[in-house]
Amino acid sequence: MKFLYNYYLKISLLFFFSIATIGVFAQTGTFKLTSESEVSVDGTSTLHTWKTAVNTVEGELQAGSKFAKMKLKEGEEVGIVALKFEVASMDGGRGDAMNEKITNAFKASENPYIEFKSTEPAVISSITNKVDNVFLLTSKGELSMAGKTQTVEIQLEGKFIDANTIQFTGKREMKMSDFDIEQPSAMFGTIVAGDDITVNFDLKFSNSTNKM
């Protein structure tokens, strides 16, 4: 009898921990970047301001269980973020000649992508609207472009559009010289792009596997 008791006890415990483990993993989520996402780069030159759209963007958010279930709390870990932008898809809206200068400046033949990868879980730095599930996210990671990698911190505003869709918006100012990017020029050097650029983000992530 004691043998049977111990046997059924072990089976019960195994079943309990299996159900608990399944519950934890079911609450985590992989949110993929959707085609509705938009990324652009703003800059200046000696003649005019300019904007470049990035038309091919990829990324995902490996969200923790609490965040995936919309349980927002200041200081709570959101998860790990990875973003990837194709340099060849950047379009300055002024023709092929300008686009070629952009890809050359970013050394696209050797470094076809701009990439950001979290080095630690992003966190909710503050909640700005509890009713509409709006919060500020701070993410620290490594940004790589033109063959150089820098550690950066990015802060974006996040919002749950619904239980399976998250939107992050914001911008990050930086300098091309920080990544050894030569400022593009035209008209025999009489027009030169400014060193300061601003990257604009409108990112939408969807967790299709979690839809009811």
Description:
The chain is an alpha+beta fold and 212 residues long. It has one domain: Beta Barrel (Lipocalin). Helices cover 19% and strands 50% of the residues. The protein contains three helices and 13 strands. Strands 1, 2, 3, 4, 5, 6, 7, 8, 9, 10, 11, 12 and 13 form a 13-stranded antiparallel β-sheet that branches. Strand 2 and strand 3 form a beta hairpin. The termini are far apart. The relative contact order is 0.18.
In short:
With 212 residues, the protein is of the alpha+beta class.
Largest sheet: 13 strands, antiparallel
Strand content: over 45%
Please give the domain count: 1
Helices and strands, in N-to-C order? HEEEEHEEHEEEEEEE
Measured as a percent range, the helix fraction is 10-25%
Low-confidence stretches: 2-27
Instruction: Tell me the structural class.
Output: alpha+beta
Q: Compute the number of strand runs.
A: 13
Number of H/I helices? 3
Rounded to the nearest angstrom, the radius of gyration is: 22 Å
> Could you state the CATH homologous superfamily?
Lipid/polyisoprenoid-binding, YceI-like
